[in-house]
Amino acid sequence: MSDKVSLSLCLNGAEHALTVAPERTLLDVLREDVRATGTRRGCDEGNCGACTVLVDGVPVLSCLTLAVRMRGRAITTVEGVQTGAELHPVQRALVRHGAVQCGFCMSGIVLTAKALLERNPSPTAEEVRQALGSNVCRCSGYARVVEAIVSLGGRP
Amino acid sequence: MSSHPKPEPVGDVVGASVPKPDAREKVTGRAVYTDDLRVPGMLHGVLLGSPHAHARILSYDTSLAKALPGVRAVLTAEDLPPVDIGAVIKDQPLLARGKVRYVGEPVAAVAAVDPTTARRALELIRVQYEVLPPVFDAEAALRPDAPVLHAPRGPGHPNAASHIRLIEGEPDGAWAKCDVIIEDVYETPAQQHIYLEPCSTLAEVDPDTGRITLHTSTQTAFRVQAITAEALAVPMSRIRVLVPRVGGAFGGKVESTNQPITAALALATGAPVKMTFSRTDDMTMMRSRHGARIHMRTGATRDGRILARQVRIYFDTGAYADDGPFVANIGSYFARGPYRIPHVDVECWCVYTNKLRAGAFRGFGNPQIHFASEVQVDRLAEALGMDPIELRLRNALETGEKWLGGAPVESGTLHACLERAREVSDWQRRRQRAPPAPGKRRGIGMAAVAHVSGLLGSSATVRINEDGSVNVSTGAVDTGQGSDTALAQVAAGALGVPLSQLHFSRPDTDTSPYDWCTGGTRTTFTVGHVITQACEQVREQLFEHASAMLQRPVQQLELRPGGHVGVRGEPGTSVSFGAISGYALYVAGGPILASARWLFPAWQLDTQRTHVEGLTSMGNGFFVFAAQVAEVEVDELTGHVEVLEAWSVHDVGRVINPAAAEGQIQGGFVQGLGYALTEELLWKEGHLLNPTMGGYKVPGALDVPRAIHSVLLEHPAGPGPFGAKGVAEVSLVGVAPAICNAIRHATGANIRRIPATGERVLRELLARETQGGH
């Protein structure tokens, strides 16, 4: 066990002053220390995508990321996606298209889709599938998830 | 059952794709799953798994682990009541007692102040074993010299958890009358649920009353209550179960998971304990689908009448019976398929081996037998030179005909499903094989599907609040498939209230009426039924009061959308539910509420018709039908199979929520695709080789067809709400044979073992080429 270090985590636009052991993952720190439990732990080894967060706008698997590496980086979790009571368009589309079943994959999918749409506002279904390659959903078969995200770009 | 009235829903909520009320909290991360819970003073529980597949436990030494700072309890079987649990056979201790029977079997449990300390304590536990010879194959386990897992129970084979025989007609004499006979051995894998949320339980003990409250990810609050009480030898009234959001289940959370042992740790420490499995612990300690080996022979006449079938099934139930005997029942019951085959001989063994126990998983024995049956029927069509759909149409059971064992088919809509599948998939044209990409071969295949909807007991209470809004309580768990939404729609449709005026309660064993389980394609069907029954009683109470308030006879009254009772033919005369409720509360009659209950009737097998051994009745009933089609492309170089497009046609009786039903069907198709092509637990000398989501491949977004067309047929029938039938499991059942039939159509490769990995497909292709064709 290593000595704990202090860490200022910029999470959803707010600074969090934390003291963490250097071997702890971002996922652990988010769920256990910050209590931002919207980031889900599905496998803890980088295979399921449920723990996806955005680091400087790029999707990252928080279970494979050391928290101390996040100094000076801007982290967005699912809790930081909506504006006030207003859902983000991705969230709205997933709800409207009936893409949500058990929901455990949804936090990761919302963030992956948000990042995709920011760099490619009108993705094709194939581009959406490519982007979702690391996000496992065991309930939906992806059909409605892809449909919901594609609907935001106005391309067939 | 056809005598049940089928009232039409009021308003337009039934049949509407209303968004699920829990979807918002799930896309915003606010949804609370069990592992998200934390209470003051909470400890963390972990389990020590066995390193041996089969060994006697000689001694434990937990002193070092107990001495580790931060450790609050270390339990072994010696600390627990000498109870074995199990749905059919009481053969499972909470922690291995006397011996271990599979690698990963829980041997000891630790509660500590944090997960790291708890895991470190596991390393300090010393267990001495005497290794015993193991057995890993179901057929080998039936040999006389096989190692025995459990103390023999009665006269049968010691490793047989169940043995079933069903014989109809004169199978021995029928083969001579067959013009074509196909015989093969089929093998299906131990697929794992891989619900995305690993099993998790938070157990709290009230220090004053000793009452245990469990918050847990499960398909059934009431079974968890009963099993935990049994395992810990405490009265059921001392246990309360609450169910936060459930991150998928698919059968894997039907029986107890880690609830009883977490409760035991909470009792031992007097503190709240949370146990959330790591993915690998979940994969090595929980359950899988039963791997199966199926010997099948089917014969038909030249004109395509299937005359005879002989089947011998071996279900590998692993170290404990769990739901295995039930799975074997369904596997046997569906071994004739949805066909009128006059001469049938089915033998089924459910067998113990030294592997992870197998239990319930979407389809419950039916995907295994459908794989063998539907691939074999397809080969029969090929041998007869008939179109596969045509052969199935010629033999499909129709309404009024009897299932194997004599149960009537009450709504025989397989023909309708097959015909629609042929139409929507443009079957005739695609059967001609569109030119594939270079180096690829293309084909299309299909499967006819039958399953059962309905099982065991459910109840519902419905009450009208003072403002006219409605509370519905059922005890049914929504595992993510959307039953809360569908059931709320049923109630709203039965009473004519908007969903915004209806509150649907979450399960709580203290306050909810009983529901057996979310499983067996039963929730919308069975719980929906009791909701409509309770709503009917509430309607009668509303009408009785409205009659007095409006001074009109009950016969002239009707429900109107928006929560009103009106006079038929007089649009201006009505009274709101709120006004009626006020009248009931303060003037006459008392609060408006009703409850309804139902035990789905079991079917006694007709022993006049069928020679029966090892199975007297079937608890599952009401047959439902579907047809599934897949178009594939096979890479000639790698054997890789890509499913290009899929069609899944289901008679759902009555659509409650089209988007939810279609989403569930698409999800079922993709789980079936994983079963067909990639998913398989692999063992070496009893050790699981791939207990991670990296080694065990579930389909990703790039692995699924570009379109999965869900087609919903509505043939309302039976006791389900407004004629609705179940769809949950059905959508997985026929996928593997449809895909493998498409592979054979594309390449000629006769896939008899799934998953049809590239390697297996290539091997079949090469074998075919060496044989110079078929």
Kindly describe this structure:
The complex is a heterodimer of chains A (156) and B (774). Chain A has helices at 26-33, 89-96, 106-119, 125-131, 143-151; strands at 5-11, 14-20, 52-55, 58-61, 74-76. By secondary structure, chain A is an alpha+beta fold. In chain A, strands 2-1-5-3-4 form a five-stranded mixed β-sheet, with helices on both faces. In chain A, helix 2 packs across helix 5 (143-151). Chain B has 774 residues and is an alpha+beta fold. Chain B folds into three domains: 23-31 and 456-599, 2-Layer Sandwich (Aldehyde Oxidoreductase, domain 4); 34-132 and 193-285, Alpha-Beta Complex (Aldehyde Oxidoreductase, domain 3), CATH 3.90.1170; 291-397 and 413-454 and 605-770, Aldehyde Oxidoreductase, domain 4 (2-Layer Sandwich), CATH 3.30.365.10. Chain B is built from 20 helices and 31 strands. At the A-B interface, helix 2, helix 3, helix 4 and helix 5 of A face helix 1 and helix 17 of B. Chain B: It comes from Pyxidicoccus fallax.
